[in-house]
Amino acid sequence: MPLESDIVIIGAGVVGLAIAAELSRTNRRIFVIEKNGTFGLETSSRNSEVIHAGFYYPTDTLKARFCVEGNARLYEICEKYQINHKRLTKIIVAADDAETRELETMRQQGEINGVKGLRLISRAEVRHLEPNVQAVAGLYSPSTGIIDSWGLMRCYHGRAVENGASFVFNTEVVGIDKVPGGYKISVKEADGISSLTTQVVINCAGLYSDKVAALAGIGGYKIHYCRGSYFSLNSRGWRLVSRLVYPVPETAGKGIHITLNLDGQMRLGPNVKYMDTIDYAVDESDRLKFYEAARRYLPQIQMDDLAPDFSGVRPKLQGPGEDFRDFVIRDEADKGYPGFINLVGIESPGLTSSPAIARYVAAMVSPLL
Q1: Active site includes 85?
Q2: Could you tell me if 175 and 211 are in contact, meaning their C-beta atoms sit under 8 angstroms apart?
Q3: pTM exceeding the 0.70 threshold for the entire prediction
Q4: N or C: which terminus of the chain carries fewer CB neighbours within 10 A?
Q5: Considering 52, 85, 157, 224, which one is annotated as catalytic?
Q6: CA-CA distances (angstroms) from residue 263 to 111, 199, 242, 270?
Q7: Which residues does 121 contact at the CB level (< 8 Å), separation at least 6?
Q8: Taking CA 126 as the corner, what is the angle to CA 123 and CA 127, rounded to the nearest 5 degrees?
Q9: What digits encode the pLDDT tens for the residues 75-92?
């Protein structure tokens, strides 16, 4: 590994890849260090692959701002680079009058955030759009879609490599020390420990971002592992809906919803389960909970239609029962670590937000080099 770099990005999930693609346009020496054998093997590839609209998030938060900006940018990127995607649209369904009032609150929040085209629809309109869905009202989102997340990550990776960025896989960061002019990064590779120096460090380590920050001596961050599992529906259920259908969201997630992949396969999920360790096992005993949650708005499904599929783990800043926490994206200069940029708690809508986050970080890096 070369001994000197301008920028080191730790973590090659979708956000790290997006940042690498953006920064590599500046002709800087960029290294992306990833502990796994290739990019995107954790949170970035274990999710619903939804292009979110941006109406879930509080006013003036990074999640709201970057989701709305990222939504528009992702569709542009997909068209330009021919990444497979579909603008399926989405309906959030209300089961009663109280939930209908929550839909109106969400619609208003979406307008504040700059989301275009949101509208409340009646029971009859829900039935017209989705004849199999049972609801008293719905919130229609025309800009929600799905994307091939692997295709997006391959695009980011390819653009970064083409522009001269270097990727180092199967390599774990084990030490970060301040040195004159920047940082010394110690890494563990197959043949032992080596190091390189860099002016700028960008911590995109996802589930391990708090630990990477701590390696540099930056405390105060704590990632909570929150597993979300999915159950697939057999082919009988594939044609029950033609777009994404969500319930009114829960505190820690968006609720067990109906998602479709690009092949038309239908899934239910994800649920919310906090854990002390990272564990991707799908608990088959959750089948009944998934079934009961979904049949509130899709009464045609049967228990036997559900089969365990896969799970992902969210890197949440808020613990069980805690209030909303925004993305952390900051240069830690005020803590004595100039040029050390932490990205912590980048969960949903991280995939949607990735191009917007990349631009934001690039603007932070520009005056440092």
Answers
A1: no
A2: no
A3: yes
A4: C
A5: 52
A6: 32, 44, 12, 19
A7: 91, 129, 137, 138, 139, 140
A8: 85
A9: 999 999 999 999 999 999
